């Protein structure tokens, strides 16, 4: 059922929802969280669909803040969707216009479920520091999507400079299947130490960067990030080398992966790119800060950059990696591991880097400021 | 476990990382059966679709039917299309189907088992299953000995350090203590006990696992979870269907052996047990065993139990035959299709609190639940008539369908008079959750492949359960009476109501 409330206010929406519940006879309030989706007007339907799908696992109230044009008089149009049109959730779509566009939080607050956790999700461009955003400040968990932004090149640096505990990014979520397969491969004997790693993926794939960073952090060995495939094709190949032979997970076509282990037959497995619904369902499963993501972002990315810096002396980089603290790299900031074909705007340096983010922030900034 | 510890990619804080089974395959004996088509095949596909099966997974069917690999593949395909929970993906299917094999033969056919052994060796070679194979016995228990013997003869149960062989058995785990022990020793001759997985699919259900969360993660239930506040506990498993195609198996076994011995006693153990030191399999099992060992039967077994047999009648708008008229059932059969027993638990927590367990076929509706019924408030400061409609508070854990939790309590009826009546508050884990929550078999099959035994009852629990049920079965057999008939679609025989009435209680209508 869809109910439209043109030119309305939060209290009218609340009243309409209580009415609906009473008339509809649904007396249960089994919702486990409030999901606030911030999006631009016109691109709200995909995230809503994903949230509705995920709501079968996490019954929730979905509040969509769709930001319209800032011109004109402040106005809010609302739409309430329940029942078949909302999966197992109830969806409130708020379309904001005029000055109201910047005051989404004031509308969201009265609509939040009592005592339930709040998750904010920016399906498109995200604020520089999600936790400081008025809506982000309401949430315990803040989801961004670096792959959803127009320029992925600086995306990781932006995520890093704006990181606060509770942040997470869908480019990390999309990796779970890859990470699971690699971890499962290492569960099997022989349990020899991995001595070097190569991670290949599209040049614009933030997920590939994160995968390399994760492996560098966990395996404490040199990791090379290699550009392969056309843009948008995601992760291609991961090769883990050990004394006993190598483990190679290769996905050439974004559908099927082949796992090749030395002295074992090749094994194939379907490894499709994860749907938005799956990713959101996974995000909503855990609402505490994702410490592993934080470390990968704050330390792993820098480690990979360091290996890229010192291609000939992997031994040195390796010992630095074992210290597990990115040493101040002084003038050694050249790390051009991505082609910078993006618009050469000189962006502001990330303001006030968070704890132990100093080095990667420097590193990420430097290539862009250079011609 | 050791693999997980030594694996640098497994960080205990990394809760996203799924546990994917290692290289392995599964062999299903009795692959043409209902269970296999409706539960196992769809569960295997769903696991594959969720990315939890290893690359190169193999599924081998073994049955008498003269099928080619393609025929087998078609059967699985149809089963998956019809019963799988997750959407069908051509890619997932294609890779899964490449690992299908079918071996035709009967259980006494040496050649067939040699072929099976060769097939497994070939799979290790081609698919990289790494010598890890689970044997799923979806077959009648009387076929166990011969199959086990064959597996041993063909050398399929020898495993080395880096490889595993596991066996999965479905209930019934014997038909009394003696046969259960025989079965245990028979299986343990061939497979070490840590390689034996007994499937009790109830334990794979989310709600049952949620029972542990409800009890041990919350502060508000534990203080009242004892004889001071609990009046009694009712555990119900009701089916609306009759004996159907299972006549051959069911007759002579009956409801008590079929359901109470495994499902209901397990649910009771989880409801009544003390808090385990941790949720690792050994600790959990220790607590379950403790409570099962503390179970005491009523003095007068005939007064403390009830049994019935469904008679012809109308159920849900359909005319259905009585048990004795069912195909394959002797007209003189004394097998019960309804059983209710009263059990006591001799420990400090539960002294004097009866646990009533009931199960039956062709009852009012299909439902499984655990109802903890509390004592009435010691004093009610209301006028006499005001609380006439007030019953006892109850906490109901609905296992299936519509999984969730209901709390029943008294509330004032709106209006000028003070009148208190029962209302219920629902937590519907159910309606929204079930769709996306994994089927019990998915969880259990994955646990078998991972070698994770917490959700599988072990020898000791099975034997203790039989120790509880055996005296009851003996008393019934000695009575040599026909179980009391009850109308199909009703809630069981009058003697079951009388059993409760004697204690001044009544069955809940689920």
Summarize the structure.
Chain A: Residues 362-371 have a biased composition (Basic residues). The complex is a heterodimer of chains A (371) and B (510). With 371 residues, chain A is an alpha/beta fold.
Q: How is the topology of this model organized?
A:
The complex is a heterodimer of chains A (371) and B (510).
Chain A: E1 2-5, H1 10-24, E2 33-40, H2 45-54, E3 60-67, E4 75-81, E5 90-97, H3 104-108, E6 118-122, E7 141-144, H4 155-161, E8 167-169, H5 170-173, H6 176-187, E9 194-201, H7 206-219, E10 223-227, E11 235-242, E12 245-250, E13 256-261, E14 267-270, H8 276-285, H9 291-309, H10 314-323, H11 358-369
Parallel strand pairs in A: 2-3, 2-6, 3-5, 6-7, 7-8, 9-10
Antiparallel strand pairs in A: 1-4, 4-5, 9-11, 11-12, 12-13, 13-14
Helix pairs in contact in A: 2-8, 4-11, 7-9
Chain B: H1 2-6, E1 25-29, H2 34-49, E2 58-63, H3 69-83, H4 90-97, E3 100-104, H5 110-126, E4 133-137, H6 144-153, E5 165-170, H7 177-190, E6 196-199, H8 206-216, E7 230-238, H9 247-250, H10 254-272, H11 281-293, E8 295-296, E9 305-311, E10 313-315, E11 318-320, E12 338-345, E13 354-360, E14 367-374, E15 394-400, E16 404-412, E17 420-427, H12 429-433, H13 440-450, H14 459-479, E18 484-487, H15 494-502
Parallel strand pairs in B: 1-2, 1-4, 2-3, 4-5, 5-6, 7-13, 9-18
Antiparallel strand pairs in B: 7-14, 8-12, 9-12, 10-11, 12-13, 14-15, 15-16, 16-17
Helix pairs in contact in B: 2-3, 2-13, 6-7, 7-14, 10-11, 10-14, 11-14
Domain Glucose-6-phosphate dehydrogenase assembly protein OpcA N-terminal (chain A): 51-159
Region (Disordered) (chain A): 311-371
Biased composition (Basic residues) (chain A): 362-371
Describe this structure in words.
Chain B: InterPro entries: G6P_DH, G6P_DH_AS, G6P_DH_C, G6P_DH_NAD-bd, NAD(P)-bd_dom_sf. Chain B: This is Glucose-6-phosphate 1-dehydrogenase. In chain A, helix 2 packs across helix 8 and helix 4 runs antiparallel to helix 11. In chain A, helix 4 links the parallel strand 7 and strand 8. Chain A is α/β, with parallel strands linked by helices and 371 residues long. Chain A folds into 2 domains: 143 residues; 177 residues, Dihydrodipicolinate Reductase, domain 2. Chain A is elongated and about 65 Å long. Chain B has 510 residues and is of the alpha/beta class. Chain B has 2 domains: 149 residues, 3-Layer(aba) Sandwich (Rossmann fold); 300 residues, Dihydrodipicolinate Reductase, domain 2. In chain B, strands 7, 8, 9, 12, 13, 14, 15, 16, 17 and 18 form a 10-stranded mixed sheet that branches.
């Amino acid at each position: 059922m869809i109910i439209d409330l043109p030119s309305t206010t939060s209290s009218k929406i609340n009243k309409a929802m209580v009415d609906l519940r009473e008339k509809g006879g649904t007396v249960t309030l089994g919702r486990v969280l409030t999901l606030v989706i911030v999006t631009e007007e016109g691109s709200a339907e995909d995230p809503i669909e994903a949230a509705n799908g995920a709501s079968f696992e996490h019954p929730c109230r979905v509040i969509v803040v769709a930001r319209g044009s800032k011109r004109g008089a402040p106005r809010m149009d609302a739409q309430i969707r329940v029942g078949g049109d909302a999966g197992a959730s109830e969806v409130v779509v708020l379309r904001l216009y005029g000055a109201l566009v910047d005051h989404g939080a004031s509308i969201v607050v009265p609509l939040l479920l009592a005592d339930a956790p709040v998750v904010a999700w920016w399906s498109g461009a995200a604020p520089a520091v999600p936790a400081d955003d008025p809506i982000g400040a309401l949430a315990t968990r803040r989801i961004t999507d670096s792959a959803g932004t127009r320029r992925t090149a600086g995306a990781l640096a932006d995520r890093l400079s704006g990181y606060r505990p509770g942040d997470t990014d869908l480019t990390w979520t999309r990796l779970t299947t890859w990470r699971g397969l690699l971890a499962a491969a290492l569960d099997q004997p022989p349990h020899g130490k991995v001595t070097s790693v190569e991670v290949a993926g599209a040049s614009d794939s933030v997920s590939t960067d994160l995968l390399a960073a994760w492996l560098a952090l966990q395996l404490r060995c040199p990791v090379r990030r290699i550009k392969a495939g056309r843009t948008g094709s995601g992760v291609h190949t991961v090769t883990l080398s050990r004394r006993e032979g190598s483990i190679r997970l290769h996905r050439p076509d974004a559908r099927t992966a082949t796992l090749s282990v030395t002295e074992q037959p090749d094994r194939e497995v379907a490894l499709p790119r994860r749907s938005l619904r799956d990713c959101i369902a996974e995000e909503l499963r855990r609402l505490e800060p994702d410490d592993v993501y934080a470390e990968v972002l704050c330390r792993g990315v820098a480690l990979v950059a360091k290996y890229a810096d010192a291609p000939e002396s992997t031994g040195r980089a390796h010992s630095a990696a074992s210290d597990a603290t990115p040493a101040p790299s002084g003038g050694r900031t050249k790390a051009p591991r991505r082609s910078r074909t993006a618009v050469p705007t000189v962006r502001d340096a990330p303001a006030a880097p968070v704890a132990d983010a100093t080095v990667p922030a420097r590193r990420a900034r430097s290539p862009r400021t250079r011609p | 476990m050791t693999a997980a510890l030594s694996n640098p990619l497994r960080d205990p804080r990394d809760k996203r990382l799924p546990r994917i089974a290692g290289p392995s395959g599964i062999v299903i004996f009795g692959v043409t059966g209902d269970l296999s088509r409706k539960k196992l095949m769809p569960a295997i596909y769903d696991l594959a679709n969720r990315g939890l099966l290893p690359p190169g997974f193999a599924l081998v069917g073994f049955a008498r039917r003269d099928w080619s690999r393609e025929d087998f593949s078609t059967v699985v395909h149809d089963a998956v299309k019809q019963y799988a929970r997750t959407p069908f993906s051509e890619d997932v299917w294609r890779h899964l189907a490449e690992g299908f094999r079918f071996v035709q033969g009967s259980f006494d056919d040496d050649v067939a088992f040699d072929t099976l052994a060769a097939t497994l060796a070939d799979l290790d070679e081609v698919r990289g299953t790494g010598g890890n194979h689970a044997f799923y016995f979806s077959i009648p228990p009387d076929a166990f000995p011969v199959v086990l013997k064959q597996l041993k003869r063909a050398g399929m149960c020898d495993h080395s350090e880096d490889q595993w062989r596991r066996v999965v058995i479905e209930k019934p785990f014997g038909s009394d203590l003696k046969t259960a022990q025989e079965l245990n020793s028979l299986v343990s001759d061939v497979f070490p006990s840590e390689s034996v997985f007994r499937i009790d699919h109830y334990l794979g259900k989310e709600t049952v696992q949620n029972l542990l969360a409800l009890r041990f993660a919350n502060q508000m239930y534990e203080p009242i979870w004892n004889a001071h506040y609990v009046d009694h506990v009712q555990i119900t498993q009701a089916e609306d269907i009759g004996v159907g195609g299972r006549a051959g198996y069911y007759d002579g076994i009956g409801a008590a052996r079929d359901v109470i011995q495994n499902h209901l006693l397990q649910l009771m153990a989880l409801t009544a047990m003390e808090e385990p030191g941790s949720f690792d399999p050994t600790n959990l099992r220790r607590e379950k065993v403790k409570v099962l060992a503390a179970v005491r039967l009523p003095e007068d077994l005939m007064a403390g139990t009830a049994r019935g047999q469904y008679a012809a009648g109308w159920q849900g708008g359909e005319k259905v035959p009585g048990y004795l008229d069912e195909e394959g059932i002797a007209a003189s059969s004394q097998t019960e299709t309804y059983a209710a027993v009263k059990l006591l638990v001799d420990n400090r927590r539960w002294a004097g609190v009866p646990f009533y367990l009931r199960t039956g076929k062709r009852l009012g509706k299909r439902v499984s639940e655990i109802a903890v019924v509390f004592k009435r408030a010691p004093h009610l400061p209301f006028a006499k008539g005001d609380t006439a409609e007030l019953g006892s508070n109850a906490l109901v854990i609905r296992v299936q369908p519509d999984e969730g939790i209901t709390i029943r309590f008294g509330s004032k009826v709106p209006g000028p008079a003070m009148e208190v009546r029962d209302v219920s508050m629902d937590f519907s884990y159910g309606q929204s959750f079930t769709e996306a929550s994994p089927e019990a078999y998915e969880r259990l099959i994955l646990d078998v492949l991972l070698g994770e035994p917490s959700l599988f009852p072990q020898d000791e629990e099975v034997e203790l359960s039989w120790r509880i049920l055996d005296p009851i079965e003996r008393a019934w057999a000695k009575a040599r009476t026909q179980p009391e008939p009850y109308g199909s679609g009703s809630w069981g025989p009058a003697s079951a109501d009388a059993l409760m009435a004697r204690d001044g209680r009544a069955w809940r209508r689920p």
